[in-house]
Amino acid sequence: MYVIAVYDIGEKRVGKMLKLCRRYLNWIQNSVFEGEITEVKLEELKLYSLKIMKPETDSLIIFKTRQEKWLEKEIVGKELSKLDNML
Fold first, then answer.
1. Structural domains of the chain, count
2. Rounded distance, CA 55 to CA 60, Å?
3. What is the model's pLDDT at position 62?
4. Model pTM greater than 0.70?
5. Which domain covers residue 27, as residue numbers?
6. Quick one: three-class SS letters along the chain?
7. Is 84 within a domain?
8. Per-residue confidence in pLDDT tens, the chain, 87 aa
9. Are the CB atoms for 58 and 13 separated by under 8 Å?
10. Phi/psi at 19 (nearest 5 deg)?
């Protein structure tokens, strides 16, 4: 599945959340990540994020779609992190 993940988290925990999300997804903008991920890896990401977050003040929002082709993305202004399909 293809996901976009966005977090809003306290300043003291931002670094940990950034590192966690980068392990699973591609960073595209401040606190925004996207990419292909399996259901198991997504559950793992959510589980580890709960260990970092304070649920009463922090949030992680995940938008899911079956494939990237079903998502139209338009960038207005500077693209902070270009994604290449080349390895």
1. 1
2. 9
3. 94
4. yes
5. 2-66
6. CEEEEEEECCHHHHHHHHHHHHHHCEEEECCEEEEECCHHHHHHHHHHHHHHCCCCCCEEEEEEECCHHHCCCCCCCCCCCCCCCCC
7. no
8. 999 999 999 999 999 999 999 999 999 988 999 999 999 999 999 999 999 999 899 999 999 987 666 777 666 666 666 655 444
9. yes
10. -60, -40
Structure tokens at 27: 């960073």
Is 77 part of any domain?
no
CA distance 23 to 17: 10
Report the chain's terminal Cα–Cα distance, integer Å: 20
Categorise residue 15: left if φ over 0, alpha if ψ from -120 to 50, beta otherwise: alpha
CA R_g for the chain: 13
